[in-house]
Amino acid sequence: MKDSVIEELSEVTSNDLKGRKGKEKLTNTLKTKIDHYLQNGNVVKIYITSYVIQ
């Protein structure tokens, strides 16, 4: 699962994260990726405490 999340994050550009919609799209994508690995239940919320873009 960790590899999948890192792979997804490595593809994100600074333009992808512009505005609220960009950040919501990222969290929704991460929820979907992580849900794929869960046998029971699903991700309810993803908390991102900071964004560091290089």
Describe this protein's structure.
The structure is a single chain. The chain has helices at 2-10, 19-37. It contains two helices and no strands. The longest helix has 19 residues, at 19-37.
Low-confidence stretches: none
Write the element-wise H/E pattern from the N-terminal end onward: HH
Give the fraction of residues assigned to helices: 40-55%
Could you say which structural class the secondary elements and strand pairing correspond to? mainly alpha
Strand content bin: under 5%
The whole-number mean of residue pLDDT values reads 90
Rg on CA atoms, Å: 12 Å
How many strands appear in the DSSP assignment? 0
For the largest beta-sheet, the strand count, sense and barrel status come to: none
Distance between the termini: 23 Å
The number of helices is 2
Dominant shape: globular
